[in-house]
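Recap for those who missed Tuesday's class. We walked through two folding examples back to back. For each one, the amino acid string is listed first and its predicted structure tokens come directly after. Nothing is annotated here on purpose, so try labeling regions yourself before you check the end of the notes.
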Amino acid sequence: MVRITFYYKPGCWICDTAEEMLNGQKEKYDIRITKVDITSSDELYETYRFDIPVFEFKDGSTLHGAIKRKAFFRKLEENRE
């Protein structure tokens, strides 16, 4: 299992693409996703508005922006429980 916190903003096409990538590997890696809408709080918005989408992994590492597939798969492997 891999736990990922996914920071996104509604209407963000890059976020939609990142979510598709997550959903495409959800079963294979048993990905558990916690979605966080950054527009739900001013603090989250200020923190992530220039970085979304953001995948935050159990080990504290992140991938953000235009997420590359190779980096994504490496992080999935590194964070398997």
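Example two. Treat it independently of the first, because the proteins are unrelated.
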Amino acid sequence: MSNKRKKYSADFKAKVALAAIRNEEATAELAHRFGVHLTMITAWKRALLDGAADTFVKHQKAKKQGDAQVEELHRQIGKLKVENDFLSRRLGF
């Protein structure tokens, strides 16, 4: 009989990792309370600590990409406005 692997949600992993970071309980106690292995808690904790800085970088990258997109759209609007003005003068509107 094969054992199926359990799949834990990202929310659950974050909850366990945050509990491990708080150090209110020993890792063994957390493993027993949440029903996961010690090494999983350690890995999730490490992943959370390593990825924490990326949270702030992603927001900055998204903002820069949004600003670049806005600039491109403004450039296109300007170009279309010039073309529209030119054509309206040529057609006599």
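Answers for example two:
The longest helix spans residues 38-91.
The two ends are 81 Å apart (CA to CA).
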